[in-house]
Amino acid sequence: MGWNDLIGQADAVASVRRAAETGQGLAHSWLITGPPGSGRSTLAYAFASALLARPGQEEATDAQVDARTHPDLSVLSTEKVVITIDEVRKLVTASQFSPSVGRYRVIVIEDADRMPERTSNVLLKALEEPPERTIWILCAPSEADLLPTIRSRVRSVRLGIPTVAEVAELIARRENVPADVAARAAREAQSHIGMARRLATDDEARRRRSSTLDLALGLRSVPGAVRAAAELLEVAGADASAITEERDHRERDEVLRSLGIEPGGTVPPALRSQLKNLEEDQKRRATRSLRDGIDRILVDLLSLYRDILLLQLGLDLDRAQLVNLAILDKLEAAAATCSAPQTLATLDALAEARERITGNVAPALALEAALITAVRSRPSSGAAA
Predict the structure, then answer these.
(1) Do the record's keywords include GTP-binding (predicted)?
(2) Which helix (H) or strand (E) segment is 135 a member of?
(3) Are 170 and 200 in contact (CB under 8 A)?
(4) Is the pTM higher than 0.85?
(5) Number of C-alpha atoms within 13 angstroms, CB side, residue 291?
(6) Residue 43 — very low, low, confident or very high, per pLDDT cuts 50/70/90?
(7) Burial class (CB within 10 angstroms; exposed 0-12, middle 13-18, buried 19+) of 58
């Protein structure tokens, strides 16, 4: 991936590219912010590649950065709920070494918002006195997700949300899918590039999303809402497993091979601790993946009720603005069963559920509360689910 894979971010690309290629405005610490799917990581690695490459070595450097194998690139891309203090300490140590083959030593931290305060303070010390040829690149959804002391020591680059047309063009080109499939995926992903790719290329991901919307549209009673919440948790779990299961098996096989153990062979007691550490990391990754899956479900439900609200308000609505245009008939039927204030109350409940889950409220309880509000917004709530 490189500059050409960044869509709708011309100003941000121009800023960091000029800094990397000319040295003008090049800071030792950068913070790339933007909504999920806007291309934060893509920009970070394109920037890193430009910083690392020496004249005539651009293509080889790009390949090494894409593979995360460049000797002067250190990456922290956690798939756990939080970034640990030990992980950041390792990066701080690596940042002290001079570059070996590149122009700079580059340290990239994806999801920097997942650092607890104590961990952030370890990073802060490294940002205060960075070595002359070390560049830090942090990625987070917004500046507010990091400590003020860290924000004051970085140069911020803000990404916007690319248009649906831009994302569709990228997906069609990169994944070689029909234009109409890419357009629907981009619209339903709400311009989230990673999710648009999954929806365009994964039939099961499309089925799970469709099932989520049908469950919400079919609510008729409070008991039905409770059952729907349980089903949505199962959908989120299946989605999380689809993302992590294959990788978990591959990682375990690689560890066994590195230990000289054939697949299916007995692991000697002296080596079991290494497998245990891997399993613990995979459990933490599964926890994060499940939370992300639940959040994706809530985002899809928010898009559903947002569409319903737009139909209820009318206001010379261009139907192409609807996220879930493919189920327009169902949206129109749902819009006729309740009022705009009731739909707005459901949107508020779903947004509150996202906040509650972020605050470690049990996802089942948060989903149940939100879906019960959705039932109450429908005149037919006394019917069987």
Answers:
(1) no
(2) strand 134-140
(3) no
(4) no
(5) 19
(6) very high
(7) middle
